[in-house]
User: Fold these one by one.
Assistant:
Number 1:
Amino acid sequence: MLLEGKKALITGARKGIGRGIAVRFAQEGADVGIADIVDDAETQKTVDLIRAEGRSGELFVADVSTTSGIGSLYERHLEKFGRIDILVNNAIMPDQSAGFIDMTEAYWDRMIDLTLKGYFFMAQRAAQEMVKQGSGGRILSLSSVHGYRAWPNDTAYGICKAGLRRMVQSMSADLAGHGITSNCIAPGYIDNKIPEGDSLESPPMTMEQMPRLVAYVGSHRGGVPSDIAKMAVVLCSELGDYVNGETVLVDGGMIGAGTPEAIRSVTD
Ligand SMILES: NC(=O)c1ccc[n+]([C@@H]2O[C@H](COP(=O)([O-])OP(=O)(O)OC[C@H]3O[C@@H](n4cnc5c(N)ncnc54)[C@H](O)[C@@H]3O)[C@@H](O)[C@H]2O)c1
């Protein structure tokens, strides 16, 4: 197991990519705290899935877009687990799309508060704890293909996701010598629906189901949370020891192979 005995904290893990990473980390031997603003049966299910792997799992209801929410989250995580070895910044608000012309100050503030400010202060506090602990650590943030290229109505979201790519570069410089790595994963299209029944995730979307989108994805299928979770294990384990300040695209080839014209055509 690659994460035996590690204590991880993952934000926005009620469902989707966060849940996928939480369960995979548990399978690799980590105890996992999950933080989400929503507390319902699905959030509890993520905790149950962690515990079903024989690891300790705990839900901390938290708003990670405010420094007070972040402070209280760390208090509870550290009280329960005693330390933090891995942070995964993953939370995102449901409305990721807003046009440039009509965007309100309230929308701009909400996006920046969660996806830049929140990710920064979550990472800063994790780094402070890791430096105190003296045994290194891993800080992973979820960027996006929107951090590489523009789609219509993605100004605020895209700016945040591009900013995270730059943030981890500065973190790798400022945290030099502490054994802490800071990286991003930039997913492509990943199905984040809550699957039916007991399965962890829905099967990947096929060419037949979404021909316009996956036609230009080299892998010819949509992504699923476990695609991202596998890379998260690499970057948060000894396998990723020498990867630092990097953003890894896990997009089935979308950015590499999709021409701007092809990508724009699916949004028209
Ligand atoms: N799904 C995709 O196709 C895709 C593509 C590129 C990047 N990403 C990135 O991956 C990450 C996960 O995406 P997803 O689609 O799995 O998300 P999701 O919508 O399935 O889950 C996001 C979770 O964050 C929680 N959340 C929202 N605001 C919060 C707050 N203020 N405090 C705490 N929790 C909060 C939500 O309740 C939700 O459970 C995000 O950062 C997203 O930008 C996703």
Number 2:
Amino acid sequence: MKITVKNQEKEILVQTVSLQKNKFDPTNLYLFRCPYCGTAITQIQGLVNKIVAGVEPTENVIVVHQCATCKRLYTFQTLEYPDIRETKVMLVNSLGAMSTFRCYICRTPLVEFRGDKVIRISDMSMVHIPSHIPCPNDGCPGIYYFQDVL
Ligand SMILES: [Zn+2]
Ligand SMILES: [Zn+2]
């Protein structure tokens, strides 16, 4: 995605958060927290189906939300079809630094990563991507499928 600042075009990295209807609790609003730093971004109705790098093609007009803390950019879209229990994630590295990915529901840190090295925080074991990791927080419905690291 390109933005124009003072007549200069810049390429920016936006992550697309795809939402699906929550069949069990269709009217509830959830606070979506930045999975990289835990800062509240916006309220969402529905569950997160996937979080991927880049803007996915959509009919919608794009609205970009910036995390006030880590400055990552997110756009949200709704998927019509799926009914999946887990959230697919493409992990996005920040330059050189160790990054943490947190459960978007309860903020429990799930993995730490740097480059393509991913460590599960609950037992500090190496994770081979792709990998399924349930949120270790008792009672939290979050289940994650880490499909790639960028
Ligand atoms: Zn953030
Ligand atoms: Zn959780």
